[in-house]
Amino acid sequence: MTSILLIDDDAKLTVLLRDYLVEEGFSVRIENDGACGVTEALSGIHAIVVLDVMMPQVNGLDVLRRIRKQSTLPVLMLTARGDDVDRITGLELGADDYVAKPCTPRELVARVRAILRRTQPSSEPDDAGDVLASGGLTMWPQQRRAEWLGEPLSLTSTEFSLLEVLLRYVGRPVSKQDLSAHALGRPHTRHDRSIDVHLSSVRRKLGALPDGRSLIQAVHRQGYQLLKE
User: Fold this and answer.
1) Closest Cα to residue 222, out of 157, 169, 151?
2) Average model confidence (pLDDT) for the chain?
3) DSSP per-residue letters across 155-181
4) Is the peptide bond before 102 cis (omega within 30 degrees of 0)?
5) pLDDT-based confidence at 122, cuts 50/70/90?
6) Which tens digits make up the pLDDT trace of 30-52?
7) Is there a contact between 2 and 22 (Cβ–Cβ < 8 Å)?
8) What pLDDT, in 10s, does the model give residues 129-176?
9) What is the pTM of this model?
10) What is the pLDDT of residues 49-72, one digit of tens each?
11) What residues contact residue 140 under an 8 Å CB cut-off, 6+ apart?
12) CA-based end-to-end distance of the chain
């Protein structure tokens, strides 16, 4: 049974969400304290964390920082509706996606399932045809593993999915609509900056090419493109 860690100081809301998630076939652990939530998240027994940003003492962004220092465990943020600052900060810190509160349990479950679909590695070994490569970048999609210039590339689940889509279409622009649909599992909305923030992080991790350019290029009115080396 897939285990979800729910970190939120709102006791009534967490019980409501837990009951719904359990009905959907998940196992749920609740932590109402941020510090305890970090310890539980790093235990290695949970498949995903659902994390509220607004908590006393240790807030959600600090929890996320502490988790990301040691783990790439998927994290879905719960943010106040319209709070773009916390949302962008969370994405920059490595959150995989967000849901604006108040949200329905059905919406939360849909977003959790979308993240889990793209984060669960296959137990089957990769065939040669399942290895994607271009220049110094190599990816094993079934294993959720990537290398850049022969070195392991540490990516969050969303960063991996975005880079995988770009690698599959290397040398061609991919629209934000297609990136969001394939990598985030949801439609792209007009003012949503999630794609930009995630790809900015991937660019930092890849570094610059010898000529100073980034491997990932923004293409005006078309989206993003992975350069073909």
Assistant:
1) 169
2) 91
3) --HHHHHHHHHHHHTTTS-B-HHHHII
4) yes
5) low
6) 999 999 999 999 999 999 999 99
7) no
8) 589 999 999 999 988 899 999 999 999 999 999 999 999 999 999 999
9) 0.86
10) 999 999 988 999 999 999 999 999
11) 126, 130, 131, 132, 146
12) 43
Instruction: Count H helices and E strands in the chain, helices first.
Output: 8, 11
Name the amino acid, one letter, at 165: V
Cβ atoms of residues 59 and 35 within 8 Å = no
Give CA–CA dist 97/136, Å, rounded. 28
* The 97-101 sheet, strands edge to edge: 27-31, 3-7, 48-52, 75-80, 97-101
Classify each residue of 199-220 as buried b or exposed e, where b means 16 or more C-beta atoms within 10 Å of its C-beta.
bebbbeebeeeeeeebbbeeee
Query: Residues near 39 by Cβ (< 8 Å), separated by ≥ 6?
Result: none
Give all domains of the chain, ordered by start, each with its CATH number. 3-119 (3.40.50.2300), 128-226 (1.10.10.10)
